[in-house]
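Worked Example 4.2. Consider the chain below.
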Amino acid sequence: MSAQLVDPDELIANYGNCPSQLEGAIIGLSELNLDIRKSPESWTIRETIHHIADGDDMWKLFIKRAIGNPNGEYTFDWYWQVPQDEWAKHWHYQERSIEPSLALFRANRSHIVQLLRHAPGALEKSLRVRWPTKLGEQEVKVRLIVEGQTQHALAHIAEIREIRAVHGV
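Applying the procedure from the previous section yields the following structure tokens:
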């Protein structure tokens, strides 16, 4: 569903609820359970949690920049130059505790929800993004990032639930 069709308050609430949903999806898992995966080529639950938190942290900066300096430019060249699986290795997703990433995810979402609710017209602010694909440069609204990051987190939360179901944990 397009973010334009979703009530702004509902959009912001859904975005803000993702940390609770993630925490609910992993409740009762042991340290060993965090290292299970759906298939040999997929990420573990632990790696997925770090990925959610890190991605959210990067897009948080887009939202803050767009609200503070609308019509500027935002690039992720440094990130897009390396495949996601390599970032996971460089940032040691397999070995790290999930608690700091969960805390970061919760804090970032809380911080951005507060900002979105207090900055008039925040969802309609935008920045130019230079994509590494043939899309080239594109004007992107905060609304699109909020919706996209909500969907991103929820899709990974669903994957975590699938992994649990496959392994019966």
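DSSP finds six helices and three strands in the chain. Residues 3-70+81-124+141-167 form a domain with the Four Helix Bundle (Hemerythrin (Met), subunit A) fold (CATH 1.20.120.450). Compare this with Example 4.1 before moving on.
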